[in-house]
């Protein structure tokens, strides 16, 4: 079973990024409405003045976020991006600060709002405090500066410089959020790809266990046929039960340790059929078996290795197997003699190497595995967490 990336996986961080932008701008635009009474004309003018004030920054942000960033900066067109961003900041702010058209529109807006203010707010019927020639008094000059001051060159230059600096900070903020979201998206994608690759490799290693076990078991049954057909038939029956476990139980990856021990006992009984009487075989499994889970077929390669390389028909041989549960960990130990005929061979073999790789993938750094390959003895000792 191969795992596929979710269709919308790579869009998660992009969606979060865009949502964050809209939340921030919505707060800037509508938060004053919570604290101000917009049914009050004076408060309404203050609200509209705030919106007009942030409008150039919002336009710069939209154009930068939707056009310049994705089509220039993220495509490594740095010079074009730099020139386009500089032009955007300077031109938009110049238009809002110096353009007569913008000021005429703003003046007309405030004229319309001013007419809604009752006389008790201070309206004396004079000209607008914003109008080019009037010197209106009362309320009109309180929230919107008079034309002579507001349109003076010094004031316009200060406002323009202030807007440009705020725009640069806004662009930097936009770039920081964009690159952070992009990095997080790529990092999450990388981890997902690594996880899928690890699962594929793990399944490949686990699939190698069954053919390896099947090959060794068939060789043993073949050897039994020459000595006892009855024992060979019994071995075939045991093998069929074990193959049923391999096909229907172990494929889930995790299995109750009771079923794993039952499978291991069947394997050991199958191997005992060809052992000579002098072999010292000791098996110690927990009794009662605790209700915990373990990764399937994790122990089998080490027991297979013991029976394959630990039996010497000409000398005393032994195989000692121990499985116990201590706290939240499973401890396994297997000691076996080394056949004089196979001492020069690779005692570990492909089964041990695959088991080591599986442990690396399954537990990463949360396991202990010690292998002692001595002159006349081979020992495996490992500890893994229960599932």
What's the short story on this structure?
By secondary structure, this protein is an alpha+beta fold. It is 59% helix and 11% strand. Strands 2-4-5-7-6 form a five-stranded mixed β-sheet, with helices on one face.
General description of the model:
The protein has 387 residues and is α+β, with helices and mostly antiparallel strands. It folds into two domains: 9-192, no CATH class; 197-385, Heat Shock Protein 90. Helix content is 59%, strand content 11%. The protein has ten helices and seven strands. The protein has helices at residues 12-35, 41-71, 78-98, 100-114, 147-150, 153-225, 229-248, 257-272, 300-309, 349-363, and strands at 254-256, 280-284, 293-295, 318-326, 329-337, 368-373, 377-385. The strands form two sheets. It has a five-stranded mixed β-sheet, covered by helices on one side. Strands 1-3 form a two-stranded antiparallel sheet. Helix 6 runs antiparallel to helix 10 (349-363). The longest helix has 73 residues, at 153-225. It is rod-shaped and about 110 Å long. The two termini are 21 Å apart. The relative contact order is 0.07. Residues 1-10 and 119-149 have low confidence and may be disordered.
Q: What is the CATH third-level topology name of the largest domain?
A: Heat Shock Protein 90
Helix content: 55-70%
- Whole-number average pLDDT? 76
Order of helices and strands: HHHHHHHEHEEHEEHEE
Q: Based on DSSP secondary structure assignment, what is the total number of beta strands?
A: 7
* Count of discrete structural domains: 2
Report the sheet-strand fraction: 5-15%
State the strand order across the main sheet. 2-4-5-7-6
């Amino acid at each position: 079973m191969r795992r596929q990336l979710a269709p919308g996986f790579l869009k998660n961080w992009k969606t979060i990024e865009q949502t964050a932008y809209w939340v921030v701008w919505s707060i800037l635009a509508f938060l004053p409405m919570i604290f101000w009474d917009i049914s009050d004309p004076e408060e309404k003018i203050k609200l509209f003045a705030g919106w007009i004030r942030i409008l150039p920054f919002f336009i710069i942000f939209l154009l930068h976020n939707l056009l310049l960033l994705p089509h220039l900066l993220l495509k490594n067109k740095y010079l074009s991006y730099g020139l386009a961003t500089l032009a955007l900041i300077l031109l938009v702010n110049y238009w809002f600060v110096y353009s007569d058209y913008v000021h005429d529109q703003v003046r007309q807006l405030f004229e319309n709002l001013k007419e809604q203010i009752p006389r008790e707010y201070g309206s004396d019927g004079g000209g607008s405090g914003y109008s080019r020639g009037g010197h209106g008094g009362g309320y009109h000059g309180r929230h919107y500066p008079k034309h002579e001051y507001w349109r003076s060159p010094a004031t316009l230059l200060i406002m323009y410089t202030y807007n440009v600096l705020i725009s640069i900070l806004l662009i930097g903020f936009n770039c920081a959020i964009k690159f952070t979201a992009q990095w997080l998206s790529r990092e999450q994608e990388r981890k997902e790809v690594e996880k899928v690759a690890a699962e594929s490799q793990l399944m490949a290693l686990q699939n190698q266990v069954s053919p390896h076990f099947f090959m060794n078991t068939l060789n043993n049954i073949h050897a039994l046929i020459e000595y006892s057909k009855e024992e060979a038939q019994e071995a075939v029956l045991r093998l069929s039960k074990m193959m049923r476990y391999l096909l229907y139980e172990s494929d889930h990856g995790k299995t109750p340790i009771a079923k794993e021990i039952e499978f291991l006992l069947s394997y050991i009984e199958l191997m005992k059929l060809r052992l000579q009487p002098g072999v010292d075989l000791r098996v110690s499994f927990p009794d009662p078996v605790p209700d915990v889970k373990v990764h399937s077929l994790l122990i089998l390669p080490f027991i297979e290795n013991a029976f394959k390389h630990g039996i010497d028909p000409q000398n005393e041989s032994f195989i000692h197997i121990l499985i116990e549960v201590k706290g939240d960990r499973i401890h396994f130990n297997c000691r076996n003699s080394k056949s004089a005929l196979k001492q020069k061979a690779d005692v570990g073999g492909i089964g041990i190497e695959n088991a080591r790789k599986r442990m690396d993938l399954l537990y990463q750094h949360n396991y202990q595995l010690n292998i002692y390959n001595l002159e006349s003895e081979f020992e495996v000792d490992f500890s893994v967490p229960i599932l």
